[in-house]
């Protein structure tokens, strides 16, 4: 098991605010891109830095835009079962685990990183809370590649959706977090 590396939050904040590159931070603290991303998330979650302080670096740089894009939009865990499917295979249902205005975490839809999928989120059991939502999304990460499609969990970034579907997505988010009104 890899050794846990402890990074001083105050030193990391100083380096972020001084404009140190992510690759130099990784070298300085002896951590991976994943470890640095985890440290950034902890600082963001604690409210000691803002997403705007994590400005994107040049294309191709380590973590370029990834942390910023993921955390600018708050994710909401769902406290109800919400199915999702591809329009050509409605019988193969996945489950939305969390949602934001920029993406979805889905279990049960087979995908590989960079796959582009059209996803349908049917109206919530006939509820009038929101209408069915159709989005085009790109798979950004996959967990459980070694498992069956039913056990696979993927993160999808929403690439294209109509204004109507965006309004319906916002209604869905209100269902996930009624305090968001």
Account of the 3D structure:
By secondary structure, this protein is an alpha+beta fold. It is built from 5 helices and 7 strands. It folds into 2 domains: 9-72, no CATH class; 76-180, predicted glycosyltransferase like domains (Thrombin, subunit H, Beta Barrel). Strands 1, 2, 3, 4, 5, 6 and 7 form a 7-stranded antiparallel β-sheet that branches. A hairpin with a 3-residue loop joins strand 3 and strand 4 (103-107).
The CATH level-2 architecture of the largest domain is identified as Beta Barrel
CATH H level, superfamily name of the largest domain: predicted glycosyltransferase like domains
Assign the structural class, choosing from mainly alpha, mainly beta, alpha/beta, alpha+beta, or little secondary structure.
Answer: alpha+beta
Q: Count of DSSP E strands?
A: 7
- As residue ranges, the low-confidence spans are 58-71
Rg, Å, rounded: 18 Å
In the CATH scheme, the class of the largest domain would be: Mainly Beta
Strand content: 25-35%
Tell me about the largest β-sheet.
7 strands, antiparallel
Multimeric state? single chain
The third-level CATH topology of the largest domain is: Thrombin, subunit H
What is the total domain count? 2
**Average predicted confidence as pLDDT:** 77
Figure out the total of helices: 5
Cα distance spanning the termini: 44 Å
Summarize the structure.
The chain has 2 domains: 9-72, no CATH class; 76-180, predicted glycosyltransferase like domains (Thrombin, subunit H), CATH 2.40.10.
What's the arrangement of secondary structure elements?
Blueprint: H1 9-17, H2 22-29, H3 33-46, H4 66-72, E1 76-77, E2 83-86, E3 89-99, E4 103-107, E5 116-121, E6 133-143, E7 153-160, H5 163-176
Antiparallel strand pairs: 1-3, 2-3, 3-4, 4-7, 5-6, 6-7
């Amino acid at each position: 098991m890899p050794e846990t590396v402890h990074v001083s939050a105050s030193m990391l904040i100083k380096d972020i605010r001084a404009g140190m590159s992510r690759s130099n931070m990784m070298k300085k603290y002896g951590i991976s891109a994943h470890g640095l991303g985890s440290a950034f998330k902890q600082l963001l979650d604690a409210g000691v830095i803002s997403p705007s302080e994590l400005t994107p670096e040049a294309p191709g740089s380590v973590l370029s835009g990834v942390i910023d894009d993921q955390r600018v939009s708050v994710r909401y865990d769902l406290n109800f079962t919400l199915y999702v499917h591809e329009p050509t295979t409605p019988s193969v249902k996945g489950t939305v685990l969390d949602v934001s205005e920029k993406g979805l975490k889905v279990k049960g839809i087979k995908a590989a990183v960079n796959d582009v999928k059209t996803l349908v989120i049917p109206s919530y059991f006939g509820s009038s809370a929101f209408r069915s939502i159709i989005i085009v999304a790109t798979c950004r990460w996959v967990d459980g590649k070694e498992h069956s499609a039913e056990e696979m969990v993927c993160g999808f970034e929403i690439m294209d959706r109509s204004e109507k579907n965006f309004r319906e997505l916002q209604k869905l988010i209100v269902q996930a977090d009624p305090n968001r009104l």
